[in-house]
Amino acid sequence: MNCDIIREQLIAYLYDEDIRPEARERLKVHIETCPSCSQTLEELGSTSRILNAWGDEQPDLNLLFVQERQTLWQNLLPMRYPKTWATAGVAIAAILIFTLLNIEFAIRDGAFHTSIGLRSSDPSEQTAITDTTETPSLDAPITLGEFIIHQQNLIDYTNRLVQTSQNQQRNEVNNTFIRLVGELETQRQQDLLHIDRGLQILYNTQETRYGHILTQMDSVKKELFFYDNAAEVLIVPEDNRPYRTIPTRRKTP
């Protein structure tokens, strides 16, 4: 297939019923004029006809579909009810049970206390029990004043914890800062010591070098002074004509 039509377009032309009419018409005109595309379309069509002629085979297995058994919970709460309603129902049932069992909750001295007892059906018995009790029971419900005091104590305790934590963090920051300053000061002292040693070595080297040069210069000056004194010219008197003037030359150092 040397044209621009690809195999997927031919498959869409053959099987896709939603292809646009103008696209189908354009492909049809091209197929009529292109032998390669016409042959490819014929092969695809023959494959489709062979597959359609292949009949369905019945499986040899005898399958029996059985309805799934439901549990007691599923029977009480059918699936048509959402889980939120089921949770709400369980919560209401728990509240009713707590009410019937006379379950009381109390907070005293930072601890959580519960008490369970059956309600008496006789009001006079409850009154008698109340009258015979001189001191409040440890399992008695908490009062508003006790709750406010406990809440204030809890707030104070929380504030103390927060203040302690802040103090610890502040101390840790200060200790870290002091340690860093000490390390920097130690490093600075070491650097100054290295610099001082380097300067001392350089000074000693230069002093030795210049001292040697000065020693050489002193020896040269002494030699020059000696030659200057020895460079006098000896003049012979005129009466002694047989003698001639003998100048002395200055020796070059």
Question: In a nutshell, what does this entry contain?
Answer:
With 253 residues, the chain is mainly alpha-helical. The protein has helices spanning 7-15, 21-33, 35-53, 72-76, 83-100, 123-132, 144-229, and strands spanning 104-108, 111-115. Strand 1 and strand 2 (111-115) form a beta hairpin.
Keywords:
3 domains, two-stranded antiparallel sheet, 7 helices, 2 strands
Question: Could you explain how this protein is built, in words?
Answer:
- There is one protein chain.
- The chain is mainly alpha-helical and 253 residues long.
- It is built from 7 helices and 2 strands, in the order αααααββαα.
- The chain has 3 domains: 7-50, no CATH class; 79-121 and 131-142, no CATH class; 143-228.
- A two-stranded antiparallel ribbon has the order 1-2.
- A hairpin with a 2-residue loop joins strand 1 and strand 2 (111-115).
- Helix 1 (7-15) packs across helix 3 (35-53) and helix 2 (21-33) crosses helix 3 (35-53).
- The two termini are 108 Å apart.
